Amino acid sequence: MRFGIIVFPGSNCELDCQWVLEKVLGQQADLIWHTEKELKDYDCLILPGGFAHGDYLRTGAIARFSPVMKAVERYAEDGGLILGICNGFQVLCEAGLLPGALLRNTSLAFICRHVHVRVENTATPFTTACRPGQVLRVPINHNEGRYYADPETLRQLNEKGQVIFRYATAGGETTDGANPNGSLDNIAGICNERRNVLGLMPHPERAAESLLGSTSGLLLFESIVRSGRAASPMSR
Amino acid sequence: MNEPTITQEIIAAHNLTREEHDQVVAILGREPTYTELGIFSVMWSEHCSYKSSKVHLQTLPTSGAAVLQGPGENAGVVDLGDGLAAVFKVESHNHPSFIEPYQGAATGVGGIIRDIFTMGARPIALLDSLRFGPLADARNRYLMGGVVAGISGYGNAVGVPTVGGEVCFAECYSGNPLVNVLCLGIAPVDKLFYGRAGGIGNPVFYVGAKTGRDGIHGATMASETFDEKSEERRPTVQVGDPFREKLLIEACLELMRTDALVGIQDMGAAGLTCSSCEMASRGGTGVEIDVRLVPRREEGMTPYEVMLSESQERMLLVAREGAERIVQEIFARYDLDAVVVGRVTADGLMRVRDGTRVMAEIPVKGLVANAPVYRRPALRPAWQDEVQYLDLHHIPLPRDCGEVLLRLLASPTIACKATVWERYDHMLFLNTVVGPGADAVVLRLKGTERGIALAMDGNGRYVFLDPRVGGMIAVAEAARNVVTSGAEPVAITNCLNFGDPTRPEIMWQFAEAVRGMAEACRALQTPVTGGNVSFYNETMGQAIFPTPIVGMLGILAHIDHATTPGWKGAGDVVVLLGQTREELGGSEYLKVCHGLIQGRPPTIDLDFERRVLQCCLEAIRAGFVRSAHDCSDGGLAVALAESCISDPERHIGVEVSLSETGRPDALLFGEGQSRILLSLREADLGRLEAIALRHGVPVTILGRTGGSRFLCTGRTFTINLPVAALDQAWRGSLPTLLRQG
Predict the structure, then answer these.
(1) Given pLDDT bands bounded at 50, 70 and 90, which one contains residue A233?
(2) pLDDT at position A105, please?
(3) Pick from B70, B58, B165: nearest CA to B478
(4) What is the DSSP letter of A21?
(5) Contact of B556 with B487, CB cutoff 8 Å
(6) In angstroms, rounded to a whole number, what is the distance separating the alpha carbons of residues A17 and A23?
(7) What phi, psi does A173 have (nearest 5°)?
(8) Alpha-carbon gap: A142 to the closest alpha carbon of chain B (Å)
(9) What's the predicted TM-score (pTM) here?
(10) Is B651 a catalytic residue?
(11) Cβ pair B159:A203 closer than 8 A
């Protein structure tokens, strides 16, 4: 499969995503500078973590105006797979490709540590390799990760199975104590209605090698590769 | 615009002595201009010239088989094999952090990162060593909060993970916190860059952020003590922009992959002045700069201000003539200025022009190489004997050793620092095999099977009580932390934080501490590759503990050797390498439980230390060591407790008995050196004993891991506590202390 990783000035997880895709999973992964206006024939796009354009304003607020984003939007409309991780999730929300917003953590502090998330829906191209209700151990690394959506949007997200990950205990309970940032309903990741765009705050690329303490993040990338194989060649 | 006339007042305001002014006149053959005076003032400040420390620093060992670059460049370089080099250095930002904690710490991070990528290395890790006053004082909480937020805010956004470090507390740091930041980068051995201006006629580029009035005389400010008006010096603190720095890193590394670059140096302390004349000095050339061409973000700046500004995120580079377009195109891609502001010249002069007008013309050699060097008077303080005196008969024995253990675990210097390091991205780049909270940080070295270990250490209390022994212990303990993590210690970088060097007792502390460090570096074969001296750490005449911080770099022959302090399962045998003596001087126990900073620090035999380290490393490499932990602050009991609770997701108890006679508090909480706690399967005990015998290191079997209690018995005491209680004391302490008030 051929992945394209969008690099904004200030992104910093692009090399990590590339490492996991190429060295761990044996896929091809190209870096795409944010000024590109056309995207080549990619099977999946990744918007990586970091601080796009410095994020001195609201996170992702400037990145959505980067020239590449028009092409990203077209790619999404055509049904292409897009994975937004952390800052990438924030950018996707700002760009309107995903509903809701990511607010400052309730602790008002940056948090970097391993958390557990429960897989809420395995019927997406990003989660087919997971078991329903499976608990993944993945790190978070953010200052603005508190997911928020208005009640109507939240209702729809729940109804249509668009909530994909919720913060949970190691045993899979979605308690307040397991919610690191105050996210609404412990939401850690959502997808769009069409299920081709997914955003999540945890970093699956940081949980892809046992040497680094966890491999459960690999399941996301493996799901994508699996769905890519099933759909290949992609019709867009 | 006319510059002010030089008067005695102006000379004094520039912190130049009468003799130094005379030397300036001798070098120039005339009175300096105002701009020249400013340039001499910053270049001859303690911060930039090392004029008081140089004679002592020259006694440190600086070469070794693995050292590719020792002190004198932007950072030290160590050979990692496979064509890779580690570029690393530690630097202080104490003074700015006291005046403005957030920006002071943030720009400290930014500055040391620039020192690393200027050598051609991608910065991959940061560590910081922090010292604050007690958290009961609201101002100390404010300082700590600001410093941690500044490191977090800058480090996370610039995209360099903060993988570890240490935080300690003592009264003496109330008026003068310490912020020492270490950065590590990885570079190809054959693509290292140096801060040298070579090639007569080559263009000198200014790249990065624009110049403002911030930080003018920052280096001079860092070379004075503080008084009650120090906060008024906020304008001398710079403001950091991590986004700009991130772009600067990427642009410079991209430029380094071309053949356009000749030399490069960051504009840190003393900005454009220091970078240009140091590059010319190393290149044996001259340099000419037109300040009118320097990109500015403020109107009406004088040549003096442009030359002395310490605006952040700027670099000076010399490119190959004809390669100007390559430089400009790369920096334009990152929205950064890249302007030719001058040329490399053959005349050995630093010439500063403002358009056609010459504002300064100084022989580079006179300015840099002939800077003043002082052998300042050193005198052992009269009170040294008094603080070293300790009669243990006057120290009451603890009634409940368990209660003491809980108090020590909750002491902020010992307590769990997760609340600090969880605010730092410590996982970026996917190298962090052992993260913050262990004896040392372990990073994998991608593309090889090896790893790098890094530890920062420095016990100011020991150095205060005996500078020479304290200096030795700082090196030895850092080496031990690297060894217990599975690595062979290779080289150090150091940051020497002391008081006012014009006071003979401070100079004595400095000379003695450096002597001790030099001895330990020789004995352990870990040369010094560079670092930084920070004097004048005093407020209202009150100096900090002399605090040399050692940043130790070690190499793991195989990443599988990575070892951590926590027990790995029940039923393992717990053993101690080394020997416990009845030593309590300078201990955390005496301070926390008896309010005493007293006695001689623990003794250290460097030859024995070396053997203990070799023994431990050989055992780890043999593959049977399940956990390894250095005994340091709080002694054996605290080390045992930490091994039970270091993994929040897996607590494992322990049952040990200590057969030694002597005071129970000394046995449990004494901080005797050269001791390492190991756990291993019983079947492997014979292998360990054979290795230890060969190195002449005593091995004591203490007990076994398992259960949910901490049970430690001796001839006259018993500690029997649930592991959960230890965890609560240790993990809960710092968040509680930071929340108060």
Answers:
(1) very low
(2) 97
(3) B165
(4) I
(5) yes
(6) 10
(7) -90, 135
(8) 8
(9) 0.96
(10) no
(11) no
